Amino acid sequence: MTDNSSRRDFLxxxxxxxxxxxxxxxxxxxxxxxxxxxxxxxxxxRLETVRIGFVGIGGMxxxxxxxxxxxxxxxxRAICDIKESKIKRALNWVAKAGxxxxxxxxxxxxxxxxxxxxxxxxxxxxxxxxxxxxxxxLAAMKNGKHAATEVPAALTRKDSWKLVDMAEKTGxxxxxxxxxxxCRPELMVxxxxxxxxxxxxxxxxxxxxxxxxxxxxxxxGEGLWRRDFATKIKGNFYPTHGLxxxxxxxxxxxxxxxxxxxxxxxxxxxLQDYASRLKPDDPRRNEKYIQGDVNSSLIxxxxxYTIVLQHDCNLPRPYSRINIVQGTKGIFQGYPDRVFxxxxxxxxxxxxxxxxxxxxxxxxxxxxxxxxxxxxHGSMDYIEDYRLIEALRTETLxxxxxxxxxxxxxxxxxxxxxxxxxxxxxxxPDFTRGKWKTNKPLGIIGA
Length: 447
Ligand SMILES: NC(=O)c1ccc[n+]([C@@H]2O[C@H](COP(=O)([O-])OP(=O)(O)OC[C@H]3O[C@@H](n4cnc5c(N)ncnc54)[C@H](O)[C@@H]3O)[C@@H](O)[C@H]2O)c1
Description:
about 15% strand; 15 strands; alpha/beta; about 35% helix
């Protein structure tokens, strides 16, 4: 199946047949009929055009949506949102781009299910609030479509397993869109690590440290849903921005695997303080937040390496993802970006990382950085979207897979369990079922 019409036929049948994939007589299909799992991505076939159904076209969704409108081979066929204003805005972007009008799904919070049942989509892309990520990805794959989701992919280990199981059963991709893996310094570090400049990577420190109080209390966008999670979840509910890039440098799920985690949180003050400054009759003053303002987790990998992971979004502070990658030959540290390489840098002194771009700029950035300029978070969102579409068009594995989505995301629940139990260790599930031992490390992602 190398063209879209045969792909369409395949999807039609598989949608009717459901997850069981009770199709013809190929080895894989017979394998599926016997109730065994298909290899991840086994049903991903080369697509000339990637036909997309897009759910949740708000702040971040809007950025992806506009990228997809200009990425070669991407075609938005259907859009879904619960807000008329977001649908109108998206239709306007489509018209301005001179593209065909997509079909609209706007009948409420579960209308994505109707959209997923269409037989002319290859990919369902979602940038909705967190509670919808798993249901949307499952509906997509169940109906024969690849799934792409914003971060975090899931909030619990059980839901993370659901994504893994469904992706393996259907042989489709489930990709969590962690854009920070495509940020310029992170890409350069990956390149340096792959070239052995930092030696054996022993340790990393990372996090998401972003004063989001204004965003959480805004009257639109994330202000409508994100604050609520701080009344329900104590731990790190946004672990993937800092972790994704260092996990790639450390070959997590491709040569190594997260083993266990311990976690601690400070008391919760930042949001309560912020709320206390609202007008006296504002009902948000009565909300009770339980999320610790600064959450710190320590992760040990199966091979013995360590990662410090933080979440710090409720206090006044400048932005940081820390981004320390430390090896036997040197260290990179972000915010501000600096490097020390033994035998090359002056003794015991940092060098500005900028100095290293001419030698270690990642080829992806060289090629696509300028194109993505001005489109969301520098160019990283554009490169991320481009890479996903390119993978589907060239029948190559996306840079991030369902095992990454699951293992990076399940920290939401694990951090909470640890900190509620005096920071006792919590074991990571091995979502790869042992394949991390033989999976090949992610290379220098080609341009
Ligand atoms: N990677 C990044 O840098 C980054 C940045 C911001 C947000 N995000 C992630 O993107 C996602 C969305 O965040 P946002 O900032 O765009 O929020 P947002 O509130 O601006 O957008 C969410 C959109 O989803 C729509 N929506 C809500 N429920 C829906 C449903 N059931 N069906 C269809 N549409 C629905 C809303 O109307 C809205 O348009 C979140 O997962 C968030 O964590 C990622």
